[in-house]
Design goal:
little secondary structure; 196 residues; 7% helix; 3 strands
Amino acid sequence: MAYCHCQGSAEELYRGCCPPVPPPAPCCLEGPPGVTGPMGATGPVGATGATGATGADGAVGATGATGATGADGAVGATGATGATGATGADGAVGATGPTGATGADGAVGATGATGATGAVGATGPTGATGADGAVGATGATGATGATGPTGATGATGAAATITPAAAVNDSVGTVDVVEQFNTLLANLRAAGLLES
């Protein structure tokens, strides 16, 4: 069986001719395929491909055996007090107990009515004189007394001795007024009529 091989097309069975092309024709007839040659050497390992998408979840496995009973948990908090139950029937009357101890004395009775007043007794002796009482507070200041009469006029004393101060000439103008004034003061002090 012959094959037709043309450029740009896949090999296909010979159908009598190749597509018409200008010479030289790129198409030729070929004989039947030869015997397959021996397998070539294994090529190098290719690069690792990208990680594939995650597979679907597997089926749920069978239920495992029941595990051992765990340790007891901590004691829980005390629950709320339940409602009071109905009152039970009265029990049988017990035997009479022994006589109890004597009870405490009762409360004092009310006071009786007051008796009649007795006769007045004799007057007792006079008691000792008591201690002096505390000194009373000072009284308020009395009102001012009236003004007494004017006393008699005393005797006339001796006449005072006055030593006249030395004379000072009159000032004749503003030129010597200060000097004359100072001289007058000095004379008054010398006569004892002006303190120094």
